[in-house]
Amino acid sequence: MARVCELTGKGRQVGNNVSHANNKTKRTFLPNLQNVTLISDELGKSIKLRVSTHGLRSVEHVGGLDNWLTKTSEDKLGPDARKLKRELAKKAKAAA
């Protein structure tokens, strides 16, 4: 399973370990991913996602999963979040 946030697409970063003697060796920085269940009010269901803590805080700050998906552009979303955004758009279009 890839270490990538399903909402934001945030993945691993590469950097260097630097010793006291200034020797540099490659290392990776992994995102802090959590398995969470987010509730979509408009779709009427709960969704299990693997989300970074940064992404989770962003969702809570905006006011929930539905608001966050509608306000975020598709190029910043992960593939699963894009599908959810399209489902929300279809639901909103059918209700209108």
Automatic annotation (TrEMBL):
GO terms for cellular component: ribosome. InterPro entries: Ribosomal_bL28, Ribosomal_bL28/bL31-like_sf, Ribosomal_bL28_bact-type, Ribosomal_bL28_sf. Signal peptide: none annotated. It holds the Pfam family Ribosomal_L28. Keywords: Ribonucleoprotein, Ribosomal protein. NCBIfam families: L28 (TIGR00009). Belongs to the bacterial ribosomal protein bL28 family. This is Large ribosomal subunit protein bL28.
